[in-house]
Amino acid sequence: MKIWSVLLLLAASIALVPLPAAADDTVVARVNGVDIKQSDLDFAASEVGTRLSNYTAQDRKRVLLQYVIENELMAEAGEKDKVNSAANFPARVKYHERRALRDAFFDASISNAVSEEAAKKIYDEKIGSVKPEQEIHARHILVATEAEAKEVAERLKKGEDFATVAKEKSKDTSAEGGDLGFFARGQMLKPFEDAAFALEVGQVSEPVQTQFGWHIIKVEEKRDQPLPTFDQVKEAIRIQLVQQKAQEVVTGLRDAAKIDVVDPELKKSMEDAAAKGEGTPDQTPDDQAAPDEQAAPDEQPGDAAGKN
Q: What are the Cα distances from residue 118, in Å, to 13, 111, 296?
C-alpha cells in the first residue's frame, strides 16, 4: 500500500454504523422547524464516532443529537450571515460532496463487503491455535520481617484460618482477607509469582521475600484463563478485516490512477516519506478518546504483591 493512502483508511477504525432504510428514517428532533432524522445521527456517528467509544449507547445517541443540533444551528446562522456567498464556498461544497461520495463508496465496497462469517472464520482459526494460559487465585499475608512471617506460618500450620490471620497481620490492607483474585504469569513480582505457581491448590508457602516485605501465600484455585467469546471480539476482528479490505481497494485504485503531485515541495516531501517508510499518523485529533474518559485508579488490590 502506498503510505500516502493512510488518511483514506482512517474511516476503517471508526464506528461502522449501518444506515437505515428510508422507511425507518424517523424524525428524532426538530430545530426551528427543520427535521433532524435518524440518518443525520448515523452520518454524524461516521464522522465523530470514535470520540464516543467510552459512552453508553444511550449517552452516545444523546451526544450525537446534540452535535447535529449544534451543526444545524450554526448552519442556519451561516445562512443568515451569508457565509455561503464567500468566494471559496463552492470549493468547500465540492470538497464535501467528494467526501460524501468517498464515504458512500467506502460503505458499499469496503465496509459492507466484510461479513460476520469472515470474522467468525478468523476467530475460529485464532482461538483454535491458542493454548489457554493458566492462572491462579491466591491469597497472601504481608509482614515486615522474616521472623513475623515464620510466626504467621506456624499459626497457619496449626489450623488457623488464612483470611482471619490476614485481616489481623497483613500490611496489605487493599486485599481483603489477603485475597488477590486470579492472576496469570507476568502480573506479579517474580519471587512471588514463582512461589505461588509452584504451590498446589490449598497449599501454603514458606515465607517469600520481595521488595515489599515477607509474604505467606495460599493458592485457592487454578484454572485455564478464559478465552474471549466471539461476541466479545467480533467487532475488533471486523474492523481489522475492513482495514485489510480498504488497503486492498485503495492500493488497486492508486495503481490504476495517474497521480501527478504538481507542487515540487509536496512532491519531494511525499517521496522522502515513502523512501523512509513514514506515513501519516494513525489517528487524527478526532480519533482520540473522549476527553472525559476516566483514568485508572492509582492503586489496585494486590499492589503490595506487585500485581500490575
A: 18, 12, 35
Q: For 237-269, what is each residue's pLDDT tens digit?
A: 988 999 999 999 998 998 899 988 899 999 999
Q: In angstroms, rounded to a whole number, what is the distance separating the alpha carbons of residues 274 and 143? A: 58
Point out which residues pair with 179 in neighbouring strands: 139
d(CA 116, CA 6): 25
d(CA 12, CA 34): 31
101-153 confidence digits (pLDDT tens): 998 999 889 988 898 999 999 988 888 778 888 999 999 999 999 999 999 99
Tally of residues, the chain: 308
Which residues have C-beta within 8 Å of that of residue 24, sequence separation ≥ 6?
38
- Compute how many other C-beta atoms are within 10 angstroms of the C-beta atom of residue 54: 13
Q: Yes or no: say if 164 and 116 are a contact pair by the CB < 8 Å rule.
A: no
Q: What is the set of domains in the chain, with CATH numbers?
A: 3-122+231-259 (1.10.4030), 134-227 (3.10.50.40)
* Grid cell locating 12: 476503517
